[in-house]
Every structure is written in C-alpha cells, then in structure tokens.
Specification:
This is Bifunctional uridylyltransferase/uridylyl-removing enzyme. Residues 675-760, 786-854 form the ACT domain. Strand 9 (662-667) and strand 10 form a beta hairpin. The chain is of the alpha+beta class and 854 residues long. The chain folds into five domains: 3-156, Beta Polymerase, domain 2 (2-Layer Sandwich), CATH 3.30.460.10; 158-308, Nucleotidyltransferases  domain 2 (Four Helix Bundle (Hemerythrin (Met), subunit A), Up-down Bundle); 309-398, Hydrophobic Seed Protein, CATH 1.10.110; 417-600, no CATH class; 759-854, 2-Layer Sandwich (Alpha-Beta Plaits), CATH 3.30.70.260.
C-alpha cells in the first residue's frame, strides 16, 4: 500500500471514529449517515482526480450511497459510467482505480457500464432500475450524467415500475411470513423495516414526486400526522441499524438475540422488575415496525390512486355508509365513523362478506386509524358492536385477513384491551418464534385453514372434523383467548379462562358454548402434554384423558385447537411425529367415548390375535410365531401395538436364539423418520451405546421402548429422525442398510460406542438459558418410577442421561422424547433397587442435573 492510500485510509478511519463518537453523544442518525457519505465522497473524488481516467467518464454513487445514507458498515455502491467501451490501457486504469478503493478499506460494490448497456440492463431488471433512480454524480463528466438522467426518465414507465415494486415487496413479505413480529427481525428487510420506507421513496422518485417525506406532504400524499410518524419511526429504525453495525463490528441488520441486550444498553434502557431491557427495546421496535407497515400500505395505495385515480373507477353503493370503488371498500363520507362508530367493525365484516373487494381505499384506512380512539368502554358495551364482532367470527370466510388487518390498525387491541397488552410481547420459551399477538393470529389462521376446502389435502381428518363440528367458530374464540393472559404472572391458562368467560357472557353466548370455550382455554396445553410425555400404550392414560374431556365434542375441539397451536409456534417445532401422537391420542379417546374398545384397552389375547391376522397377511403359517412369543411377557404385548408385534415377529421368528445382534430398520409408519429394532443378548450399557450410536450419526431419538425377555435378550425399539432432513423420505431410505450393518457390527464387538461430540450451543440458549429440572416420582401403581427431565436440547443429551442411569443400575423401560424448539422435555419409565433408597435417589437426581447443565 503506497503512502498516499495509507494517508487517505487513515483519514477515513479518523473521520468515521469522530462520527461514531458524535452519534453516541447525541443519537442523531442523519448526521452520521450523511457525514459518512461526505467523508467517502471526498475520498473517492480525490482518487478520481489522481486516476487519469478519461474526462468523458462519470463516477456515480448509487443505491443507499446515492441516496446519501451510508451506514457504518454498509457497502459503497458506485457506477463508473462510460460514453464508449474502453481500450486496453483504459481498462488498466479502471482496474487500478477500483483496486485503490478496496485498499482504502471500503466494501465496494461496483459496476462499469456504458450508458447504452446501463439503460438496457435497467429496462430488464427492476433492481438495477431502482439503484439508478438514486444515482448521484461524484466526479467526472457532467454532460454524461445529464444525458444519463434524461434517458433514465425516458426509459421508466411509472405504472409498470409501481407494479414491479409492489410484487417485489410481496415476495419480500413472503420470506418473512408477512409479519414484523418475529423474535429476531431484520430491521432493513422485514415487514415494517427500512425497506418499506425506501419502497415508498423509490416510487415517488420514479413518479417525479420528490425524494423526501416533505415532498410527499406537499403533493398531498401524506397528512401532517403521517409526516411526523414517518420521520420519528424512520429515525428509530435508523438508530437501531446504526447501533447494530457498531455492536457487531460489521454489516448486521438482524436483531438477533446476541445483540438485543447490547442494543438496549446503547439506548440507555435498563431492566425493570417485570421486563428485560431487551424486551423493552424490542417492543419499541415492534410498535415502530407496525406503524411503518400501516403507513406503507396507505401511502403505496395513495401513489397507486394517483396513477389510476379513484374517480375513474366504477362505483356502486353497498349501504348508506359504504360504497365500492372498483375492488376497494370506501366510506361515503370522511366523517362516517364519527357519526356511526359501529361502522368501524362493520367495515371489516363487509370485507368478509364481499370477496370481490380486495382492499380498502386510502381514505377508509386513514379514517379507521383515527377512529380507533372511538372504541371506548361504551362502544364495547354496545349490543350492536358485540353482534358485529361475533358475526366476524361466524362468517364463512375472511377471518385470517380481517383479524390481521384489525390488529394492524390497532382496532383489535382497542376492542379487546387485554389483547393490546400482548401486542409486541416477546416469548423467551425457545420454541415460539413470534410475539404473543402474532402467535395467536397464526393459530387462528391455522384453525381457519382446516375449514377451507382448498387446503383439505393438508390435514384431511381435521378438515372433516371441523366441517362436521356445529358452530366451529367457537374454536376461533378459544384461539383468540388461549394465550391472551401471557406475561401477567401466574398460570396464563387460568387467567385466560376468566377473560374468555367475560367475553362469552358479554356477547350473549349460550351457557353450553361458553363452557366449551372456557374449557378449551383452560386445557389448551393438556392434550399436547399427554401426547408427547405420557405412554399412549398405557390404558390408564387413555382412560384418564377420556374422563377429563367427557364428551366427543370437547375432544374434537381440543384436538383441532391443539394441532393449530403447536403448528403456530415455529416451523421447527411441528413434525409428523407430533402429528401422529396427537392423532393416536384423539382416535383412541374417541373410541372410548363412543363406547368402543380402543387398541390400548385390548387384552393380551385380543392384541395377539390382531398381530396374528397381520402375520397371516404376510404369508406366515399358523403357529410360526409360537416359539418367539413364548419368550415375551405380558408387558411386551401391552407396550407394543399389533403392527409392531407383527413386524418384530416376521423379523425374528426363525432366529429367536440368534447369537448375533439383529438390527432392522424401516421407514416409520408416520411417513417420516426411521423405526429401528434391535435384538441382541442383553449387555451392560446397551441402551447407552445405542443412544451414542444414533447421536454420532446426527439423529434425534423421538421414542424408545426397552424390553428384556425372560431368557436375557434385549428387544429395543426406536423412532429416530434427522432434525435437518425430517421431511425428506429418500434420505432415510439411503441410510437404512448403513444403520442395520454398522449398529449390528458395533454391538457384536461389545465395544462401548464413543460418546457423541458436544454440539454447538444455539444463540437462543446463550442468551435465554434453560434451568434444567429433574422430577422423579412413582407411577400410580407404584411398580415403576416416572423420570421427567427438562433441559436445553443438544446432541448427546439422551446419551448422557442413559449413561448416568446405567451407572446407578437403573432399568429403563420406555423413553418419550419431546423437543420443543431448543427445549427438551423427556419422560422415562424406570425401575431399579436404587430408587427405593432416598439417599441414592437424591444422588441420582443431583448427577442428572449436573449432566443437564450446559
């Protein structure tokens, strides 16, 4: 690096440090953003003067740099514009100029194009066209720059550009699940991020309406209140992004858990008695993002109406308060909501009732935003408004879109004040990836999806159940209230019951319907806990659950709500295994309530006969199974369903005394993952070795049934799944032979399988650690003990538990593995002499806790 470049580089470093110090002193984002632009401008202009490049060339700043906003670690995007293709010596000068920019320590995004090529590429790519909109001359030919500006305007069709930017925004929203309320949002790209504001400016620029918020106000596109909101919320997001860059020491736009506490500290926010500092700063961010999504929707529609004026749209009356303009719902007068406050809720109901309407006009949206203040206690007590709200839940369509719109414009929180308390509230349970309000709306969407015919192929049983369910909209109410009491302290299910009961009574629901909704809110966690933590082959589990639900109607409603609830937490939490457990519990309990005998309640002889029927189907002669079945006891037949018994028998009937380990794997009956059977002479640490083998292969054990025959053979069954490939069936078929051969070979050698390597700790667990717990208590018949553990999930967790149990000579009979995001909640049925000794039991629990700590 030559001395000249070193000196310029040091000037940049000193200037950026001064800008950072000034920002930390006064928090003014514009001073830093524009200050860094001026600093880089001056440096590049110096380089240009020393470059000897042709005077007919022009150096342009584009993108965010062209806009005059350079964040601390943002790329410096430039366009070297030429009037003709360069010759060989000029190419060398260009390469040297770009190389010197990199030597300055700048992350340069550069393009080198002739004017003709530049305009041609812009006409084919809306991203390039957008970047060029904000092009700013840094150095070089003013004539070429003026020519570029003139041709750029000629090549831009504003209506096409507007449509392209809307499509681009829709695709971006899809990537982020249409919500700004994920727990680790991107302050630039997520809905409600800076990109939403930039999209408005780009379209305004393309339409020749200016590049500043004041310009839009001058043209009547935004109100004075909206102007203030745009400036204040943009300022907050700019501060957030600048601070993220400083904290990370690099380009970072995601509010990841790693940075949230530091971000709060940089704003001077400290923890309170009820909230972490990170929760406070994130709630501020969410409220700003929510307001930005509102403004984005309103202003983009305003711009669209400028290109296609509403006056040219066909209009027809809906009623005395509303009309349709084209495919938009419109109020007939600006003061409709002041004169008829009930029209606030009516507007959303009309959107549900008129599928030809695709949205609301700008004046309707603006009027709704201001009308939220009209929703007072008197408004909530008005029978007309209560009827309208119920009708919105009862309509055959539109709940998903309209309740999201109700929340977006703060109408839902105004009508249900307790809902307002959970807007933007984070959940640090490591398996919810949305704030509480967004999770509730996601659950509502999932329940609604079961009703829609187009989605019947996704979950056919649930679709059939909900369409046969009289007044299924009661489940919508339960979905709205199931988590509404989170964050208040205490049991949110109990507190939510009270809210749900008040709502139902106030809205005139029948006693029977009120009782159902309240019961669903109270027990919305019960079914998932039983399905994932208890032994569904145990008849008593089914009987107790049946006694709790009492009626088939309650059971069906709870199954629908539970399914929707788990799927609404995170894409990582839901899988086919959880679906199969819920369905098994539902079907068995329904049979019991119908007076039939579910499989779990069959006696030994009935189970054996069902298994024999399956064996005959596969061509095995009667009596073939006898020799093998004589080795098995009552417990085996009670814990394994007839299909499993038949599979084991087909594999082992001709080798019940096999001297070599037998390992057989197949696709799991649930359609994903593998079912693995191991049959071998029992040996010390056998279960530990098997856990170690699966962990080293990267598989998660979802279920394990451990059985020892009377003559000393172990017959163990596992359901395993690759957490990274849980939806790829072909992946499992490829490894079946590998598992069968490798595991059998390891067990035959009798070698203890090496423990799995420690897994990498997730970012969530670093910042929101889970305090491990170990609960050991006798089962209801006092024959075995139930061991329940909760800990941070990681590779080798089950291996460490199994090794500790083996060291204390504890026999493990079944293992039920429940993984909820980053949290493992596992339940084991165990026995052993040590469990009858209180001192040894305390020692076992202490050792388990030590193993579970990170």
């Amino acid at each position: 690096m030559d001395a000249r470049i070193a000196a310029l580089r040091q000037q940049l470093v000193d200037g950026q440090q001064a800008l950072r110090a000034a920002f930390e002193h006064d928090g003014n984002p514009q001073r830093l953003l524009r200050g860094r632009c001026r600093l880089v401008d001056k440096t590049l202009q110096t380089l240009w003067q020393e470059s000897a490049l042709p005077g007919s060339y022009a150096l342009l700043a584009v993108g965010g740099y062209g806009r005059g906003e350079l964040y601390p670690y943002s790329d410096v995007d430039i366009l070297l514009l030429m009037d003709a293709e360069p010759d060989g010596p000029t190419c060398g000068l260009i390469e040297r100029f770009i190389s010197r920019m990199w030597d300055l320590g700048l992350n340069v995004g550069h393009s080198v194009r002739t004017l003709e090529v530049c305009l041609d590429e812009a006409s084919q790519d809306v991203t390039i066209q957008t970047n060029l909109l904000e092009a700013r001359l840094l150095a070089g030919s003013r004539r070429l720059h003026r020519e570029f500006i003139a041709h750029r305007a000629d090549h831009l069709d504003i209506e096409t550009f507007y449509s392209a930017k809307l499509a681009e925004q829709a695709q971006r929203y899809n990537r982020f699940n249409h919500t700004p309320f994920s727990l680790e949002p991107n302050c630039k790209e997520s809905p409600g991020g800076l990109r939403d504001l930039q999209t408005i400016i780009w379209i305004a620029l393309g339409a020749g309406l200016g590049a500043r918020w004041q310009d839009l106000a001058t043209h009547g596109l935004i109100t004075p209140e909206e102007l203030r909101a745009l400036r204040s919320n943009e300022r907050l997001l700019q501060q957030v992004r600048i601070r993220l860059h400083h904290i990370a020491g690099r380009h970072e736009d995601r509010l990841v858990f790693d940075h949230q506490e530091s971000l709060a500290a940089s704003f001077g926010i400290t923890a309170s008695s009820g909230k972490r500092a990170s929760e406070v700063v994130m709630q501020r961010y969410y409220l700003a993002a929510k307001r930005i999504t509102q403004l984005n929707s309103i202003i983009l529609q305003s711009l669209g109406e400028r290109f296609t004026p509403l006056a040219t749209w066909e209009t027809f009356a809906i009623n005395e308060r509303f009309q349709a303009r084209g495919d938009q719902l419109d109020i007939v007068a600006d003061d409709v909501f002041q004169h008829a406050p009930s029209a606030i809720l009516e507007s959303f109901l009309l959107m549900q009732q008129h599928p030809e309407l695709k949205g609301m006009t700008v004046r309707t949206l603006r009027a709704l935003w201001h009308a939220r203040r009209l929703i007072t206690p008197a408004f909530r007590r008005d029978p007309r408004n209560r009827e309208l709200f119920l009708r919105m839940l009862q309509e055959p369509r539109g709940q998903t879109h309209e309740f999201r719109r109700l929340n977006q414009y703060s109408i839902l929180g105004a009508y249900l004040p307790n809902f307002a308390r959970i807007v933007g509230q984070m959940q640090h349970d490591l398996f919810h990836v949305y704030t509480v309000d967004q999770h509730i709306l996601q659950v509502l969407r999932n329940v609604r999806r079961f009703v829609v015919e187009e989605h019947a192929h996704e979950y056919p049983l649930l679709t059939r159940l909900i369409n046969d369910f009289d007044r299924y909209w009661l489940i919508f109410i339960a979905a709205l209230f199931h988590d509404i009491a989170k964050g208040r302290g205490g049991d949110h299910s109990k507190l939510g019951m009270a809210d749900a009961r008040r709502f139902c009574r106030a809205h005139g629901l029948a006693r029977e319907d009120t009782a159902l909704v309240v019961w669903l809110v109270e027990h919305h966690l019960t079914m998932s806990q039983i399905a994932q933590k208890q032994d569904l082959s145990d008849p008593e589990v089914i009987r107790r659950f049946g006694a709790l639900v009492k009626t088939e109607r309650r059971l069906t409603a709870l199954y629908i709500l539970t399914h929707a609830d788990i799927r609404g937490t995170s894409p990582k939490v839901w899988n086919n295994w959880k679906a199969s457990l819920l369905e098994e519990l539902f079907l068995a309990t329904r049979q019991l309530l119908q007076g039939k005998r579910p499989q779990q309640l069959l006696g030994i002889s009935e189970r054996q006969e069902a298994a024999r029927e399956r064996l005959r189907f596969f061509g095995l002669r009667p009596g073939t199974e006898d020799a093998f079945w004589r080795k098995l006891d009552t417990l085996y037949f009670m814990r394994h369903d007839p299909e499993e018994v038949a599979w084991h028998t087909r594999t082992l009937y001709y080798r019940p005394d096999s001297p070599e380990p037998v390992v057989k794997a197949r696709m799991s009956p649930i359609g994903r993952g593998l079912q693995v059977m191991v049959y071998t002479r029992d040996q010390r640490d056998l279960f530990t070795s098997q856990c170690g083998f699966f962990a080293r292969m990267g598989y998660t054990i979802l279920d394990a049934k451990i059985h020892t025959t009377g003559d000393g053979y172990a017959l163990d069954s596992f359901v395993i799944m690759d957490p990274n490939e849980s939806e790829v069936a072909a992946h499992y078929r490829d490894v079946v032979t590998l598992i069968e051969h490798e595991l059998a070979a390891r067990l035959a050698c009798g070698d203890c399988i090496d423990p799995p390597p420690p897994g990498r700790l997730s970012r969530q667990l670093k910042h929101f650690p889970i305090a491990p717990s170990v609960i050991l208590q006798p089962d209801e018949r006092s024959q075995h003990f139930i061991l329940s553990i909760a800990a941070a999930d990681r590779p080798g967790l089950l291996y460490n538990v199994a090794r500790t149990l083996a060291a204390h000579e504890i026999n493990l009979h079944t293992a039920k593995i429940a993984t909820l995001g980053e949290r493992a909640e596992d339940t084991f049925l165990v026995s052993g002499a040590a469990l009858d000794n209180s001192a040894k039991t305390v020692q076992l629990q202490a050792e388990l806790l030590e193993k579970l700590r990170l």
